[in-house]
Amino acid sequence: MAATDSEPSLFSAWSYFQTQPPPPTLEDDVAGRGPGRKVALVTSGGTTVPLELNVVRFLDNFSAGTRGATSAEYFLKAGYAVIFMHRQFSLQPFSRHYSHSTNPFLDFLEIETDPEGTSADAARPKITATPSDNPACSTTLTFVTVNDYLWLLRAVSQELSVVGRNALYYLAAAVSDFFLPRQKLSEHKIQSGKGSLLIEMDQVPKILKPLVDEWTPDGFIVSFKLETDPALLIPKARAALERYGHHLVIGNNLNQRKHEVVFVSRRNRGSAVSDVDAHWLRIPTDAVDARGQPKEIEEDIVAELAKRHQAWIDQSWSQHPG
Ligand code: 9Z3
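A: This is the predicted complex of the input protein with 9Z3.
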């Protein structure tokens, strides 16, 4: 630093930004057009719906968080920073391989692998990427109720909107469609004296609409659609695209979800949703990956998404260069 005889200036925050030049890449970085780090917000696991204010009973769903936890690992491997927003105690990246572990420090261990598969440990799933592949890039957030989830998603997406197009939203959490608003909740445990129980629930608002239109208008937004009737999958995915105007719906049927999913998107941005592309990703039930381990469909899902996300970022570059 060059020494001078002049008095040191006292900058207020205001005068600092008035007088000092911004870095040349700032505008693009903030708009998400630059080569800045891509960020994936991965939501994972089920949401609960409490039936009482002092909760004794609640509705829940089946999701273990496998899709989200597994995908988060592949996003890290693909170079994304990951915000992992998950249901408390659902599966988490890396430690998911050790189902009964409650040791959070496991996340920071380098796991020795046995490439020949000769040791007694060989039967265990192998950890192929660890957070050290991507130092300091992951954040974990926790929800339990559907109310927690909605508030958290709104807050995080508003914050994340600063990275613009570099943000990818991977909404794999199984979100309840129905809830009991605070005003209708019984304060104390519902009593059984009256015999049968009738509960009328309200519909959870369609959160994707403000997410797309207001909270993070530049994000690349991928939602999941879960069905148990295969005939409904593509029509419902198409209806979601039409209703929310986001980029992609990944459809999965409950019983086939580990082996096939369908990517439903518009053929061209702006084209009518009647003109959708349905692209199936399938893996055989006995598929193995390059290391001879059972293949996980999330590897292919994330590879395909990373490609589409990059193409979309590049497209905005070509439309609004520098
Ligand atoms: C999914 O469809 C996920 O793939 C699964 C993953 C929940 C099936 P697991 O955690 O299961 O691996 O056991 N998530 C989205 C489900 C959802 O709530 N979608 C809403 C809907 O279908 C739209 S956002 O209406």
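DSSP finds seven helices and twelve strands in the chain. The longest helix spans residues 297-319.
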